[in-house]
Design goal:
Strand content of chain A: under 5%
Shape of chain A: elongated
Number of domains of chain A: 2
Strand content of chain B: 5-15%
Order of helices and strands of chain A: HHHHHH
Radius of gyration of chain A: 23 Å
Distance between the termini of chain A: 21 Å
Helix content of chain A: 55-70%
Order of helices and strands of chain B: HEEEHEHEHHHHHEEEEHHHHH
Number of helices of chain A: 6
Oligomer: heterodimer
Number of strands of chain B: 9
Structural class of chain B: alpha+beta
Distance between the termini of chain B: 46 Å
Strand order of the largest sheet of chain B: 1-2-3-5-4
Chain lengths: 166, 345
């Protein structure tokens, strides 16, 4: 589940416009914020996420699905149909890649459902799935620095604070 | 247009004053209404209520913002839990005064409680700065209060209706919670991280039976209590309170996320000490395999909360940019979920 860049920029703009701007007392700060909002509004429609991570996640899921189908067949069992696409989906654009990833995720969910409905414990296959999931998350994680929720929830005067995080 | 509660609305004090005067049958003057910066769910404001011939009351108004993290809200669970638990000797909770879900009063559901002195330690740092003595005494209070909550017999209180409404039984509670958070994250309805789908199936397949159904605070951790001089003065943030398996609170309180980089529960005390005090209070035994199950479930819940925040941002239902920041935590939360399942499997 990748964040929508457009929605993120919209959220930043809304917070600045509706939560921050009315609270500002300084004319200078208000003019600076107006400038930020203007630039943000323009940039919002000019930027896209890097496609590399999406492509890496897609490859990891497709590899796992293909390996799972092979192992199920090797065990003399029948995998649910349609786990591996008949033909590769186009991946020329960011939108194509995201569609292909969503499709791979749906097939992965079908395999997950099948595995948990399996009568018995197929530990090796579970491990294969969990490893693929872990590696897709690692690929995504490389891009995301930690958030500083302490700064976001702490009052400037600490007395009588009432809860953090949510 | 999304409904929005405006805590800075100029008419808010007058509306609150008018309603309180009617409820209490005497003139009430509301003053000093000011918002606390913390919180991404209920909006928290402090105020004083003064009536002729009465000492002034320092109160907290918590309002369930329609744009908040868990909206739509009801004030009933928090109020009823606090009112029921008021009879527990020594349990540090604020006194519950009033509540209503009627949006005609303030624009959103709200609860009014006593304002308790103290400050809120953050769950992400501070364990070293507090000093060992304070960590120990806070940790003991933290375990004892949880034990007191879980030992409370709710069956003869209004909370008994919750069990009937939710069909909560020892056999159903684990799956009930999993379904609740799956719905919150809208799993299967829109983009669903494969790790969340896998975790949901794992939780359904491995659900344990509860030994006892208790009040579950639902967000019991460092950061949701007030402390003063190394003692807990009030357990706060009861919005997720429900009936269920007490191991859910043990697992949530002990999450690595809230341990300030230590191996201790909440960065305060060793797990063995925390469990021993809890067992002494409840008469229950900690079941390690059930704790491991609930560690997975509460991590799933954490991820569901983050997904809920992302959905609110992406559908334009939140003005709070911190929810966008929460969305960026989803990946690391899912990685921890993956790890916990591997440990429990």
């Amino acid at each position: 589940m990748n964040q929508s860049l457009d929605a993120l920029m919209g959220s930043i703009g809304r917070a600045l416009r509706e939560e921050i701007l009315p609270e500002l007392q300084s004319d200078h700060a208000r003019s600076q914020l107006a400038g930020v909002l203007d630039v943000l509004g323009k940039v919002q429609h000019m930027v896209v996420w890097s496609p590399d991570v999406v492509r890496e996640q897609l490859d990891l899921l497709e590899t796992c699905l293909a390996q799972a189908v092979a192992r199920i067949a090797a065990a003399g069992e029948t995998a649910p149909g349609g786990l591996v696409p008949a033909a590769p989906l186009p991946s020329a654009t960011q939108a194509d890649l995201l569609r292909a990833l969503a499709d791979a995720e749906r097939r992965f969910a079908r395999l997950t459902d099948w595995l948990f409905a399996w009568p018995g414990e197929w530990a090796e296959l579970h491990e294969l799935l969990r490893t693929a999931l872990r590696n897709t998350l690692k690929a995504q994680r490389r891009l995301v620095p930690s958030a500083d929720f302490s700064s976001m929830t702490a009052p400037s005067q600490p007395a009588d604070a009432q809860g953090v995080f949510k | 247009m999304n409904p929005v509660f405006d805590p800075a609305a100029p008419e808010l004090p007058a509306r609150l004053q008018s309603w309180l005067s009617g409820r209490w049958g005497r003139p009430v003057q509301v003053g000093g209404l000011s918002r606390f910066p913390a919180g991404m769910s209920w909006v928290t404001l402090g105020f004083t209520a003064v009536s002729p011939g009465e000492p002034p009351l320092a109160l907290i108004l918590r309002v369930g913002d329609p744009g908040g993290l868990f909206s739509p809200y009801s004030s009933r669970p928090e109020y009823e839990a606090l009112a029921a638990l008021a009879s527990v000797p020594g349990l540090p909770i604020p006194k519950a005064y009033e509540h209503s879900d009627d949006p005609a009063i303030l624009g959103a559901p709200f609860v009014i409680t006593q304002r308790v002195a103290g400050d809120t330690p953050t769950p992400w740092r501070g364990a070293d700065e507090r000093g060992e003595a304070a960590n120990q005494s806070l940790g003991h209070d933290f375990a004892d209060a949880l034990g007191a909550i879980h030992a409370f017999d709710w069956t003869a209180t209004p909370l008994a209706a919750w069990a009937k409404e939710g069909a909560i039984t020892p056999q159903t509670t684990a799956r009930h919670e999993t379904r609740y958070w799956a719905r919150h994250a809208r799993l299967g309805e829109g983009p669903t991280p494969p790790q969340m789908h896998y975790a949901m199936r794992w939780l359904e397949a491995n659900a344990p039976e509860a030994e006892r159904i208790t009040i579950v605070h639902g967000d019991y951790r460092v950061g949701n209590f007030l402390q003063q001089d190394g003692r807990i003065t009030a357990i706060l943030d009861w919005e997720l309170v429900h009936l269920g398996d007490p191991h859910a609170d043990l697992a949530w309180a002990g999450l690595r996320t809230f341990a300030a980089g230590t191996t201790r529960v909440g960065g305060l005390v060793e797990r063995e000490v925390f469990y021993r005090r809890w067992q002494d209070r409840t008469g229950l035994q900690v079941r390690p395999e059930v704790v491991r199950y609930y560690e997975v479930q509460v991590q799933f819940k954490m991820a569901a909360m983050l997904m809920g925040a992302m959905i609110r941002v992406q559908t334009g239902r939140s003005r709070d940019v911190r929810m966008a920041a929460m969305g960026f935590q989803l990946t690391s939360t899912l990685m921890e979920l993956n790890k916990l399942i591997a440990e429990a499997a």
